[in-house]
Amino acid sequence: MKKLLLFIFTITLIGCVQAPESKNEAKDKSFIVVTLKISEGNQQTVFDLLDSEMGLPTTKAYDGCITLETTYNPSSNTLVIIEEWETYEKYGTYLKWREEEDDSKALASLLDLLEGGIDGFTVYTDNKQYKSY
């Protein structure tokens, strides 16, 4: 009887304990990386535009946007935006809205502040092998 109880207790305990998830295991996530090569002298204007209500707060509130972070590299005058979306399709819908329907014209205003206009705006989608260490 003691062996049976010990066996049942052990099986129950094993069933309750789960192996921790490996942090460096590749996962499928919909990450978008955007780089903005800012024209000299336009840094603060870009920061102000992105911080304005029509800028990144609108992006973050858009259907499907999970997280949004930015970092700026002064030596290359490049701002990097890292976004996580529910799906790449939802990001595509958002970008189409920004290009064609957004009354604020924030994207057009932003492009005017970048080196080479649209050439200073790079979007990387369909990213794979996301890992966290």
CATH topology: Alpha-Beta Plaits
Number of strands: 4
Give the CATH level 1 class: Alpha Beta
Low-confidence segments, given as residue ranges, are 3-20
Strand content: 15-25%
Helix content: 25-40%
| Morphology call | globular
Terminal CA distance: 47 Å
Contiguous helical run count: 5
N-to-C order of helices and strands:
HEHHEEHHE
Cα Rg = 22 Å
Secondary structure class reads alpha+beta
Domain tally: 1
Output the strand order for the largest sheet.
2-3-1-4
Q: What CATH architecture do you see?
A: 2-Layer Sandwich
Q: Averaged pLDDT, please?
A: 86
> Quick one: biggest sheet?
4 strands, antiparallel
Describe this structure in words.
The chain contains 5 helices and 4 strands. With 133 residues, it is α+β, with helices and mostly antiparallel strands. It has one domain (30-124): Alpha-Beta Plaits (2-Layer Sandwich), CATH 3.30.70. It has a 4-stranded antiparallel β-sheet. The radius of gyration is 22 Å and the shape is globular. The N and C termini lie far apart (47 Å).
Outline:
The chain has 133 residues and is α+β, with helices and mostly antiparallel strands.
Main attributes of the structure:
globular, about 35% helix, Alpha-Beta Plaits, about 130 residues, alpha+beta, 4-stranded antiparallel beta sheet, disordered N terminus
